[in-house]
Amino acid sequence: MKHAPRLTALLLILALLTGLLPAASAASQPAEPRIAADSAIVIDYDTGETLYEKDADTMRVPASMTKVMTAYIIFEELEAGNLTLDTLVPISNFAAQISRNQASYPTAVPLPYGGSLTVDTLLRLILIPSASASCVAMAEYISGTEAAFVQRMNATAQRLGMTAQYRNCHGAHVHYLTARSQAILVREFIRRFPQILDYTSATSVTFNGTTYPNTNQLLPGLAFEYEGADGFKTGTITSAGYCLSATAKRDGRRIISVVMHSDNNTTRHTDSTALLDYGFAKLATDAPYIDTAFHWSWQAVEELDALGAELHPSGEQFRPDQAVTRAEFTAMLYSALAADGQLPPLPGPEESAQPAETAPPEDTAGEPEQPAPEPEPPFADIDDHWAQAYIEEAAALGLVEGDQYGRFNPDSALTRQDMMVLVDNFVELPEANGLGFDDDGDIALWALEAAARTTAAGLFGGSGGRLSPNASATRAEAAQVVSRVLELA
Questions:
Q1: What average pLDDT does range 448-469 have in this prediction?
Q2: Distance (Å) of CA 230 to CA 37, 128, 201, 262, 265
Q3: Burial bucket for residue 450 (CB in 10 Å: 0-12, 13-18, 19+)
């Protein structure tokens, strides 16, 4: 951070950080859902936060939700280069035989004796109609035997922090895990391999002339269609009841739900709908501002709000798409850095206690003490402005400057190149050039060095190959930039 003499008292900083914080949203919390299933949970995908749970840590039979772990390991093999989607997997006689054994290995999707199928085809059969024999074929191909593959399943579960005891690769036979662990696995799967949603969002698959519907009926066009649903996996055997892990995304926010041991197919879907509805409602009411819960900038805004940065809200609204002003960005950046301990420290007592070498004072006995004159604001147009204290403190540190007329223009919209210069003033960035945008020539000479450094640091990325340096930045952009500045430390 750049250093300059500080002229303002510590009390001013304390006032900035404690007296000017935005109030949290007063929106009422949604009523908790009534869930019939014995175990249930819904979590925020982005943060992993549990939004609701019911007996989520009891070990229960997952049935075919087991196949999520099998598919996860297949994707690990794809990532490692040991498989491709076009790799032909031989179908053993055992796998072909059990693929026709509906009684012991539901769902039965007959596989060819002595034939081979691609990894892509087997994945679709595993994840859409829930074909157990397809899991066995993949397990044998990856690990040699299903037993060896199950050992890897349990090791993977332990690595991910799950509570699970896998005994087979398909879930047609009994073993145990918790609803929370299934949610952990689904979240990690989507985070690490988002292409899994291309499979789990498919409503059907056609194989050997037969079309098999997806057993997750929350998907578009199916019986329990839920807006934004794009996966994940059901499970049904007698000891498990009816299970369903599901995920949905709305306006940029994703949540994950799991229900275990429901009484019937309808209940597992209606329970999942109730969990997803509650999860989205909870995200909206827990957001510090009602207009950021599902905005692309939500995470940066929530992080800054939690830190105690000055976001200058309007009631319960952050106004993310409104142009940010010079005062708003200065206050946001200054207060965030101050709260994070990234501004220069106050002068120590030994520094302030050192007497200046001056002539002996004249005898003024009996004369009334004259009050010190009030300091003049550093800029002519910030007197009584809501951000005056922030601007004065930043000016005292040499972090902000006015125009040629001694004005700060606090309420004028901030362009991206103005923002780059302000950030460059506040933060010590390495000398590097991150430019190379189609419109680099539009950057003013006075902003060119700052633009080069801030783009090299990843604070500004442009869009579609353009930086748009003279366009007004939004409050959402400002929050994102400040959040990235904090990450640099």
A1: 94
A2: 22, 12, 4, 21, 18
A3: buried
Which backbone phi and psi does 7 adopt, to 5 degrees? -115, -5
Nearest to 278 by CA among 456, 447, 54: 54
67 has catalytic annotation: yes
Of 25, 39, 54, 64, which is the active-site residue? 64
* Beta bridge partner(s), residue 314: 317
Instruction: Look up 64 and say whether it is catalytic.
Output: yes
Report d(CA 388, CA 157) in Å as an integer.
54
pLDDT 10s digits, 235-265: 999 999 999 999 999 988 999 999 999 999 9
State the pLDDT at residue 16: 42
Predicted confidence (pLDDT) per residue in 50-98, tens digit: 999 999 999 999 999 999 999 999 999 999 999 999 999 999 999 999 9
Q: Using CA atoms, how far apart are residues 441 and 18, in angstroms rounded to an integer?
A: 43
Question: Catalytic site residue 130?
Answer: yes
